[in-house]
């Protein structure tokens, strides 16, 4: 089972090693980590996607809360949060399939960020499932390079 | 207008902060990167610095001091090799929840990251083995880091903290001596409110017919001995302790069933099997005690701890309460019924009678168990005992009883050979009027034997008992039982002459090998407050029983009588 952990931490160097070290030490499997500063420049938001059953994730949460630089940990369930991931992908293009790829991008609302005679660099963002579908579609053209940010997430608001 | 304070150097400030905090003793070893700090220490009239012979000795001394006094233990080391020599001690303190402040020198900030002379990334190295650590980047940050570090070390579940102190920050001037806003959340140092439902918790306990208290080191950190005794006596609930919990409940009390786990008493381990309710008080279901899925499987399991990460970590529980153990017990006791449990208590008394701690005492050779019984009688309830790691540690845990907390110093979580001697020295500094005995083996004592010099230099009357079996005894025991007596690298036929070694440091010593010599030897050992070395020759084949083989459960316990029956005495 995948869990999205939203972790608020003090924004200073070393905190990332404290947090990620806790995961490696206990050999918890991290799918992705994304970090960025919040509206308060002293505080960063980390989103970590982990695999594990509920009791493992509960243990992770409690261990995280023991770190002095961790302010809060929230386990976001997939259904009540908006999650996004950004990918940049370079695919091979030929004259014969260029329009085909462009129309797929249109369907997915992906942006073409760069174009050469033989390659196309596409920017796409969406939730995990959308990203996976998009990558599947690109597969057949030959993927030359990928950069993914890892997921970021926020809870849906009730008001 | 706030009066502008005069600027002082970072090193001066650090010393003043230690003084204001009430630290009067630190254990350490100087070096280039910590010299400005040592220079300020030299001028201090309030702080006594104990010069050790190895930084590992310094941190174990700080641990022995902290555990025996309940105060913060402070140790100092220089950068690089000095700092890395603290690593074992920090890990030890983390696993046994000992409040330690380590201050390390670091190369100047502009040299950090360049592989400068004697540079080590001690901040990075100690991330997983400290509760809090920081690289101090500016003298203006010293006050905040100091405050945070000391609060964290002693707050909640105690543990080690480390401040890495670059040389230029030690000389940098600052006027910031106090901070009003800490960066860390108060939950890391304030007592948490009681979490959980006291009523249903108490109801489950009141329903139990055969309850058992399982007490860990957390009980000692929480200073909860009085409350535990009250709870036990009110409900007539027998008490077993972990290795770390020894002393939290009087070992001589009628309700005490001694230590449980791998080398616990047979009656404690049988009590775990027979109880219908077990209440964990500040223990952690350690793997030397509890096998997940099999530990007290027929009992309702309950747990009180200050660290929520301990709940359901290895063994799942039915009831839990979060908070400071002393506070939680105070709230719980009024809700617990006063009951006599003649059947259950009587049953355990019979177990004690039928399955006592046993050893074969029929020969003239000295048996460590019998020796420790005598040592206990001679120094009853008065001594602080530290141990190293191995068979001698387990025998001491079994045969030396404690009336009070903070008298038993042992490396429980990490099992650090080399802990005993420095821990005893630290304890003696903290308790100059008490008898402090280090129980060690011929292997362990050699891991920090250089600290004999510290004993000699400061004239500290530490009593050192060495059980010499010319073996790494505990390793041999495992090899005998589980590796068909292939004694791979556990035997050595070379030991120094420990008595002469002591003499080289002006410490009096004696070696004995015969039972008839015990009384005299003990008299010599304990006669005054001077340091002594007593080397006791014991048979190599002597084993620690009972024993639950690693990874097995209470059901698989082997008792001494089992081996006798199998003709393997
Ligand atoms: C630093 C360290 N190295 C290795 C071990 C593994 N170990 C555990 S007990 C033991 C033997 C201890 O021998 P000794 O100190 O002579 O005590 P005895 O068991 O003979 O009483 C060893 C090597 C350890 N606990 N710590």
Automatic annotation (TrEMBL), chain A:
Coiled-coil regions listed in the entry: none
Sorted alphabetically, the keyword list is: Amino-acid biosynthesis, Branched-chain amino acid biosynthesis, Transferase
Which Enzyme Commission number(s) are on file for it? 2.2.1.6
Domain of life of the native organism? Bacteria
Q: Which PROSITE patterns match?
A: ACT (PS51671)
On whether Amino-acid biosynthesis is a keyword of this UniProt record, the answer is: yes
A single Gene Ontology CC annotation of this entry is:
cytosol
UniProt entry tagged with the keyword Transferase: yes
| InterPro entries membership | Acetalactate_synth_ssu, Acetolactate_synth/TF_NikR_C, Acetolactate_synth_ssu_C, ACT-like_dom_sf, ACT_dom, AHAS_ACT, AHAS_small-like_ACT
Name the catalysed reactions: 2 pyruvate + H(+) = (2S)-2-acetolactate + CO2
Its GO biological process annotations read: isoleucine biosynthetic process; L-valine biosynthetic process
**GO molecular function annotations of the record:** acetolactate synthase activity; acetolactate synthase regulator activity
Associated pathway: Amino-acid biosynthesis; L-isoleucine biosynthesis; L-isoleucine from 2-oxobutanoate: step 1/4; Amino-acid biosynthesis; L-valine biosynthesis; L-valine from pyruvate: step 1/4
In terms of CDD domains, this protein maps to: ACT_AHAS (cd04878)
Which Pfam families does this one have? ACT_AHAS_ss (PF22629), ALS_ss_C (PF10369)
Annotated ACT domain residues:
4-78
Q: Partners and quaternary state?
A: Dimer of large and small chains.
What's this protein's function?
A: Catalyzes the conversion of 2 pyruvate molecules into acetolactate in the first common step of the biosynthetic pathway of the branched-amino acids such as leucine, isoleucine, and valine.
Q: Which family does it belong to?
A: Belongs to the acetolactate synthase small subunit family.
Name of the protein:
Acetolactate synthase small subunit
Query: What organism does this protein naturally occur in?
Result: Leptospira saintgironsiae
